[in-house]
Request: fold
Amino acid sequence: MKSLIDAALKREKCDLVIRGAKVFNVFTGETEEGEIAVKDGVIVGIGSGYEGAEVYEADGAYALPSFIDAHIHVESSMLSPEEFALLSVSRGTGVVVADPHEIVNVCGIAGAEYMKEAFARIVHVGVNPLEVCMQLPSCVPASPFETSGAVIDGRETEQELARELFYGLGEFMNYPAVLSADGDALQKLAAAKAQNKIVDGHAPALAGDGLNAYAAAGIKTDHECVNADDCNEKLKKGLYVQLRNGSSAHNIEENAKAMNEYNYRRFILCSDDRNAYDLKHNGQIDDALRRIVRSGVPASRAIAAATLNTAECYGLKGKGALAPSYDADIVLVEDLIDFRVSAVFKRGIPVAENGRALFSCGRYETNAVKSTVRIEPVSEDDFRIDLSGKTRVMRVKPNGILTEEEIYDCESENGDVKLPAGVCKLAVIERHFASGNMEKCLLSGYGLRGGALGVSIAHDSHNLVIVGDDNRAMARVAKLLEKAGGGMAIAEGTFEKAFPLDIAGLMSSLPHEEVIKETEEITARARRMGVKEGIEPFMSLVFLSLAVIPKLRLTDRGLVDVEKFEIVPLQIGEEA
Amino acid sequence: MKSLIDAALKREKCDLVIRGAKVFNVFTGETEEGEIAVKDGVIVGIGSGYEGAEVYEADGAYALPSFIDAHIHVESSMLSPEEFALLSVSRGTGVVVADPHEIVNVCGIAGAEYMKEAFARIVHVGVNPLEVCMQLPSCVPASPFETSGAVIDGRETEQELARELFYGLGEFMNYPAVLSADGDALQKLAAAKAQNKIVDGHAPALAGDGLNAYAAAGIKTDHECVNADDCNEKLKKGLYVQLRNGSSAHNIEENAKAMNEYNYRRFILCSDDRNAYDLKHNGQIDDALRRIVRSGVPASRAIAAATLNTAECYGLKGKGALAPSYDADIVLVEDLIDFRVSAVFKRGIPVAENGRALFSCGRYETNAVKSTVRIEPVSEDDFRIDLSGKTRVMRVKPNGILTEEEIYDCESENGDVKLPAGVCKLAVIERHFASGNMEKCLLSGYGLRGGALGVSIAHDSHNLVIVGDDNRAMARVAKLLEKAGGGMAIAEGTFEKAFPLDIAGLMSSLPHEEVIKETEEITARARRMGVKEGIEPFMSLVFLSLAVIPKLRLTDRGLVDVEKFEIVPLQIGEEA
Reply:
């Protein structure tokens, strides 16, 4: 502390002086031209006349506090933590609140330990370029309708949450359990309260008394708002609104309309799910800033939502502002419209410049999280569906993840349904314990013809999801996925291809350039099989098991009607 | 937690429903008409259709979160904690961040323990009407120039701060020690940082590099701003600005001019020093609200500064808002202009109505903090001052606490100075250890004739301060104060009177009505002795030892030139 005071008073040389910056002050909303003086990784003053062991010329760039991503599932990038960090840091991110919900649903706590350790081992000139607050996933499994790779109950939550490993409790997506005052859910929430740890929320379409109950349970954030009214309802109940800039969520501008001069402090920015392509080419929180500022939010409010607000929400001391005693986590951007990041500092150490990380990283040991796909042998006959009469069909819609229920009149031939035009089959195979659990249904609106494709990512239990109109191709895809240890796979005629996701069947160990290229190639190949415009061939599949979003979803246990919150038979009239 | 959820969803009856209120939402700045539903002391919803075991008709009053006083020295009310609580709660205060700086400078940690325990024992229908976050005083003594009743060094601070007794570290008024990187001061600051406890500040006129250094040391608040520019400078450096509505600080309206739509979140309200009369007749944070709203601050921002902002600054979970999961600490006010408090609830229990507390309280045992005035016997000869030639004279000014230095040509007769017209004597006598320490000087601008008066409150070491133009009367006042165990005393001709402050020589055990009456009577009597208009006879004396405010101060060790930060001789030319 002495050296901070001495440096502030210019009795001692600073470690770094950033000269010629327009320094944005998130407390006042104003910009001041001057120098940023850094000692021991901490800002000791904004002013002039500092001497520094290192001097960085900002050339008139704007200096902002490093961005904080309030909520992200890193696994959705399909990148290793190390590759994620390279991209994230180059876009000005200093801290992420990461919820390893996906990998923990596959690997249990070992998945979170792997993520935390892989991030922690990235060190550059003595600093960790990307700090990670790891949330303990609250919903493992996410719903009672599927088989995940692990189960973390209330008692285990109590114990795990007490570990330094975890910062808080991850998004409580099982909101029906909260509303029904389910004992296990309440034990988790009570543990977080007793341990004074924040609980993230996930409350799509919840309002009124239901939202009151959800908030009364101590849940503090939500990232599922769909419009300004929804945001206002969440705000009123005391939840921080996380404005989400995900790869498949496209309503950040709409939600940002709810921000005003009074309530702006209660908005924070997050990615939730963001793929490698977007991280590389469009950015992360910098992209969210760009979007909301272009949509009319004053830059000063937008920046607060990317920095100070998030630090306050999560109690991140020393983060979110450029002022004495705050960590020297600094982003230089060319202007406050495009937010193009020209340099990034972590605790005073340069960690990225002009969109490229200045550090490199190996790979942390993945033994604990690889070879996770274990299935019973499958044959093409396993993909037969014997149906006749009125049948529930899941319809996917372009540009979104909601599904609808359609009723088709079906008939079978040789014990297998004759697929109506434009309809294919969807299968989900349990892949954690080789239990042989497998369920199938019909899918419309997708558009695939003459083959099959599949993926080992399937929110939230990450079983195998395979779609196709050819039983043999579907079985081949299952085998390809098993052999690859998870990933994305295609079978069409004699062609077959798999892109392995060797880390938990969710992420690749490859460099991000290769992950992007491989993903693009296999996706382009899939699209040529007839998948409709507006539907991502693989990435739309990953939500088809997510039994918390209306209307129909398929899991390894059956077809779920999310609104009824129960498993329903494929054929109408079979209800108990 | 189950009962909160069940009550929110109307599956279970609430404990209390407040009907017909205009409920102010501090997250949105908007007001909503409806019911406030309370279960287990916690708000479970704002809405309609709730059933309650108790129903309170608000009759259209505005409902606000209970006010939080961000910084107060309760001792300055001269009331016992119990009497303070009666007044404070009736004015809508739910939490005070109390810095027992005065009593700890007299009694050491035992003083803080007494205060905490006395507050904690006030219980009404199972709730404590006034919650107290007790800060560990950081400056005991406040300066090296005086003798206090206790010394709390860096090492003791480390140990004490770790106790549950203390919430954070009280205002760091010895800012010169911070700027000079004094080892003991840094040990205290480092302890607070290591223990993740907030440090309050006190940085009058500090700006630029000096303020950078002060902020870099981790200090988070300031209540010494004198105008909007000063506020902006503190804000920029990341300090919360505490808008002070003290009994002798009259610049809250001026400071509030710095509040705007962007920065309002960084302003919080406090009292610092507030006497019983003001608490009783003008109020506390309600009065601060009234003042700043009348001066033009929008009510929505003012209310945030009285509630949510303070809760955020101090990390007070569950405080500062009316929303599900927040404590049912609720104030009803008639409008958002006068903020006249009509009812107060603490965790859902009514604790005050129409300006009167609904609880009563006895007195917690004061043995640990009474009989604290111990002096060597004094005689009238001890008040002689032998002076000749150019002499420094302390000049007091009306309506403020700054003093000036005047130079007088003095001469003595029989070893005692002949007082120039309009000049009297000022004496400070050490009163904790009967050490015999006693210093004197001349005082102009005060106006007393024909007697003496004195007080045992003297910031920050609370030695005896006696002023007079008659040595015999001054000695009598010293004896009166000793006999009373501290207080306020007058001697004029054959008349003498003392109002005892039996708790540490700072506070009275009497009911607040009597404290107010006795104080008024003795003050009126003192004024008749010629004390000038604009100068409070007793309360102006209590700052004359405060060796952190320019220009001259007198302590039991000598005359201090605060700007030079050293003890200076009375006679010019005696400098070393």
